[in-house]
Amino acid sequence: MRRSGFTLIELLVAVLITAILVTLGYGALEQSLRGRETVQANAARLAAVQGAMRAFLQDFGQLAPRPVREPLGAGYQPALRVDATQVVFTRGGFTNPAGLQRSTLQRVRYVLENGTLYREQWPVLDATLDPPPRRRALIDGVKTFSLRFLSDGRNWVDSWPPTPLQSTLDERELRWLPAAVEVTLELDDWGRLMRLIEVAA
Asked: Which of 50, 60, 151, 174 is least enclosed, having the fewest CB within 10 Å?
């Protein structure tokens, strides 16, 4: 009497089919994981871009006409100052949820270093050389960071204050603020982004 069962060929065919299905399933899973990582990376990049734009809007939209003392105490820095590598300014609306004894004004600096845009803030307005500002990396992959300013005469200028810093600024010029700020970022992956911000002051 013949016994029922699987032959060696049938077992080999079954093993081969199982191996093919496992290979296909692994490929689909690997592709799905790669897709998920890409989506997460794109989402993180979008969040960084949105965070940078939100910081620009909050900071430049609340520029305050408050000059600050030079760190060594001789003279004043204008409320808004721009040079080749950085922009430094005083802004209002510095929230104080803990009710600390401090001003609602804040001194802020943006500086681009090695492709990363940093935002720095001082704990006090008329700061000395110590303590140093608190620094936060805002966004990386930045090719260029540039600003333009709309003056009282409705002319766009690339520097601020329009009066050269080599000359002595009077009190009005120290407090002088633009009517609007145009912020332009050029990123490695997103290209050129621009935001026009009206100054509340």
From this structure: 50
Q: Hey, what domains does the chain have and what are their CATH numbers?
A: 56-198 (3.10.610.10)
Tens digits of residue pLDDT in 117-155: 999 998 788 866 667 889 999 999 999 999 999 988 789
Alpha-carbon distances, residue 81 vs 40, 69, 199 (angstroms): 38, 13, 15
Task: Judge whether 60 and 183 are in contact, CB under 8 Å.
Answer: yes
Mean pLDDT of 69-86: 82
Sign of CA dihedral 96, 100, 103, 105: negative
The gap from C-alpha 19 to its chain's centroid, in whole angstroms, comes to: 49
Between 110 and 7, the more confident residue is 110
CB 201 within 8 A of CB 106: no
The Cα-based distances of 45 to 5, 42, 109, 154, 187 in angstroms read 59, 5, 23, 35, 11
Strand partners, 146: 184
> Tens digit of pLDDT for each residue in 85-102?
789 999 987 766 666 656
How many residues in total does the chain contain? 201
Beta strands in 92-133 (DSSP E): 106-113, 116-122
